[in-house]
Structure formats: C-alpha cells, structure tokens
C-alpha cells in the first residue's frame, strides 16, 4: 500500500510517526506499507512552524501550546521529538475596559463569564438575574440552532451582549447567530451555580485572590528552544528521511487515476505520483475545487494577521505574570496577545529582550493591508499600555489566508457530503483545514487524526476523534 500525504504538518506527521512505530514493532499489516509526505515548504510544520525574523526573534503562527493531559500518545511522541520543555501555569485575563468606561486596559479573570462578580454593579446585577433565571428554569432539553441561542440558553442576554458578541465577532469575524453550537464542547465554560455563589459571597479583597480557573488545562508545555516549529522539525528529522519530499507542491489530484501532480521548487514541469491512499491535510475546499469530485463546499473561513513585536527590556511590569490576554474591545485590532517570550527562548538574548505576539482576524474579503494592520496593532498595544514605542527592537508580520475554519450551521452537512465522495476514492481529508472542524483542530487533535488515519487504513480500526458524518467505509 502506497500512502501519499499532502503536507508535512502535525496531521501528516502523526501518520508518519504511527506507521514508523508499527514497522518498528514488526506489525505484519504495516510491513508492505510505504508513505510519502509532499510538503511545499522547505521545513515541516505548516501552520505550526516557527520563523526567525531579521533581528533574531522567533515567531509562531499563532498561540500554539500543548496541554499534555489530552492525549498521552501525543505527549509521548512530542517528548520523543524534543528533549527540553518548559512547563508553565496558564495565567490569562480578559480586557473588559469598555464595561468600566475606562481608557487603556481593565483586566478581569478568564473566562469572562466567571468574572461576573467583578463587573460594574448594574451589569453584574443583570447578569446575575439572567443566570438565576436559567438555574431555576434549565433548558437543557432544548437544542439551540446556533451559537447565539446556546449562549442565551446557558448565560442570558447580558453576558451575550457584553462579552460573547464582541469577542466572537473579533475572533470569528461573524456574529454568534451565524455559528453552529456544535463546536462548543469544553471550549466555552459553563458557569456552575455553586461556583457563582461562592464568588459572589466574597468581598473585593477575597475576589482579588480567588481561583477563577476552569477545567484541567491549568498547565501547559512549550519547547524551551526553537518555538513550536522545533517539535515538528525535530520529529521529521527523526523519521525516515526518504519519506519526506520538501519543496514539492501538489498542484493537482486525479481521483480517477489515483495520481497527484507534483511541482518541485525550481522546476518548470510537474511530475505524476501514484497512490493507493491519499491523506490530504491542505484545505478541503481547495481539494474539492481541484478534483471537482463533488459540488463546491459552502463552508467559511477567515484570515489572520500575525504581528510580532520584539522589545528591549525592561518588560512592562503588569505583563510579567501573564501568558496571554484576550481583547473583545473593538478599539484595538487584536483578539489575543501572547507574551511569547515567557514561553521559551525565542529572543536573540533573553537578558536583553522580550516579545509579544498579536493575532488579528478579518473576513477573507476584507481589504485592509498587512501594513495597515501592523500600524493598528502597534497603536493598540500602546493604547493598552502594554508597550512603549521607544522599546521596539523588531516588528514581524505575516498574513495567514486560512486563519480559522468557521463552524457555520451547515458545516457538518457540507463536510459529510465531501467526505462521502472523497473516501469512496480512498482520499481522506484531515487536520485543521483538511478536516475543517475547529473543535478538533489543535496540534494534538491533528496529530491524533493522523495516527488514527493509519490505524484505520492499515489495521482496520475505526477513527474515534474525527467524525466525518458518513459511515466508515470498510477496507478494500
């Protein structure tokens, strides 16, 4: 069996790692399987790569971290790839300055719905009334049609209007009304009545030291050196070298012939490569358009601008304890700012420099330029008293044309239609944009999708993490 993978990001590396593991174990079913990873860039990682700017600052393509409790298999693989890791306590806050009618920044604990006791009295009382009504009249049997209805069902209109609407618009670039509730899972914390009553019983001094955290993700890990991309580059280097073809871009897929067109960098003519099974980790909408295997998909994504700012020390004092901050405030372009230099050695000299990385989302048809976004971002960081212009040593920016796969109400139906046709032709589309499901698109999710793909096509085991929406097609 010849397996060809489009891309060499976490999903494809999960497949390669698993196949290598099976071969090393002497698994009979894997003995005759071969795999080729076709990557258009010169390094592995995809959206999980790390770049170094002209001044020597390292930048990830977004806020990538690892919660190592999620998948022990993923932790084992990444520990195999990289030896030195930092373990950090998650400490993130939300800037809600517009609630307090203050300029600059006004931080409250994350998630914002847990910080209700700290809201101004008028807003707090309306939030509490909404929540009291929902505790006394639960609507758990009612299925919401969209994310706005889900928020109304669990939190009420005040929290919807004060936090979820502005923040959703900044991250997703669409209104909550235009999003499905299917993606929520554990990503949006509900507020237990007991927790709310406990917080509301505290005075201001007690609230200042209260535990507002939720869920098991209180700690995360990050490579000590090389940024997130170090994980995937190191893993690729430890796997069989002949499995990887870098600087090779897939320009076409013929699902009837079971071939891919591959253009190597520096060449003018493409070559054909045959496959028995194809793992696509590139955007599924592009794959469908290229193959015309079914009608174009009605699915939506946005674009994200990454703006990294390298700064001379001393570090802004109030940022020293935080890992990242959320910004629903419409007056600044970023929805999240990561204090990246806290994570690992990502500056030219940690004694002299520190860094922040900003993420700004826009609809794909937004006409703002990268240059304009950089200016707005720097202005916003100054407005929020996070940096001074005089301390700026380096500014890095990049536009990611595929930022977030937006969970629209018809997404699952459209994806099921695509997967049904693709898998009939032995094409499996997985990963952040290959699978297009935000709720299962973290690095660990994507890696496990690759692992489970191999378990399915080699061992005949059903996938557990990624749900295509169509019945599993038996092997052969």
TrEMBL record:
Residues 15-294 form the Amine oxidase domain. InterPro entries: Amino_oxidase, FAD/NAD-bd_sf, Zeta_carotene_desat/Oxidored. One of its GO terms (molecular function) is oxidoreductase activity. Gene3D superfamilies: FAD/NAD(P)-binding domain. It comes from the Eukaryota. It holds the Pfam family Amino_oxidase. This is Amine oxidase domain-containing protein. It comes from Caenorhabditis remanei.
């Amino acid at each position: 069996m010849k397996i060809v993978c489009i891309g060499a990001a976490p999903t494809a590396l999960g497949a390669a790692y698993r196949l290598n593991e099976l071969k090393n174990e002497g698994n009979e079913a894997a003995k005759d399987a071969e795999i080729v990873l076709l990557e258009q860039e010169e390094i592995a990682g995809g959206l999980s790569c790390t770049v170094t700017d002209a001044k020597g600052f390292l930048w990830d393509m977004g806020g990538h971290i690892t919660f190592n409790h999620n998948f022990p298999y993923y932790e084992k693989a990444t520990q195999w790839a990289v030896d030195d890791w930092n373990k950090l306590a998650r400490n993130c806050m939300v800037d809600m300055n517009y609630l307090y009618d203050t300029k600059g920044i006004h931080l409250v604990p994350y998630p914002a719905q847990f910080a209700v006791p700290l809201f101004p009295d008028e807003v707090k009382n309306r939030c509490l009334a909404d929540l009291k009504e929902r505790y006394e009249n639960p609507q758990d049997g009612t299925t919401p049609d969209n994310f706005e209805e889900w928020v109304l069902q669990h939190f009420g209109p005040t929290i919807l209007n004060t936090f979820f609407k502005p923040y959703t618009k900044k991250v997703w670039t669409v209104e909550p009304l235009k999003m499905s509730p299917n993606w929520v899972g554990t990503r949006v914390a509900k507020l237990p009545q007991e927790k709310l009553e406990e917080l509301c019983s505290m005075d201001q001094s007690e609230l200042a030291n209260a535990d507002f955290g939720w869920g098991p993700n209180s700690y995360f890990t990050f490579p000590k050196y090389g940024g997130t991309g170090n994980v995937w580059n190191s893993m690729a280097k430890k796997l069989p070298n002949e499995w990887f073809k870098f600087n090779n871009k897939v320009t076409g897929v013929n699902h009837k012939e079971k071939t891919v067109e591959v253009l190597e960098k520096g060449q003018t003519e493409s070559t054909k490569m045959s496959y028995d099974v194809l793992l696509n980790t590139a955007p599924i909408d592009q794959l469908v358009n290229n193959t015309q295997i079914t009608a174009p998909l009605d699915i939506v994504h946005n674009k994200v601008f990454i703006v990294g700012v390298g700064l001379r020390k001393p570090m802004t004092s109030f940022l020293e304890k935080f890992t990242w901050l959320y910004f629903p405030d419409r007056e600044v372009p970023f929805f999240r700012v990561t204090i990246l230099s806290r994570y690992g050695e990502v500056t030219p000299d940690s004694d002299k420099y520190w860094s922040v990385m900003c993420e700004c989302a826009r609809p794909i048809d937004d006409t703002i330029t990268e240059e304009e976004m950089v200016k707005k971002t720097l202005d916003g960081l100054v407005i929020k008293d996070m940096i001074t212009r005089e301390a700026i040593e380096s500014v890095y920016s990049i536009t990611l044309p595929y930022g977030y796969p937006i969970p629209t109400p018809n997404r699952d139906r459209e994806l099921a239609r695509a997967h049904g046709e693709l898998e009939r032709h032995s094409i499996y589309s997985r990963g952040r944009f290959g699978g297009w499901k935000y709720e299962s698109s973290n690095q660990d999710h994507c890696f496990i999708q690759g692992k489970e793909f191999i378990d399915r096509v080699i061992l005949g085991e059903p996938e557990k993490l990624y749900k295509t929406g169509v019945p599993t097609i038996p092997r052969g």
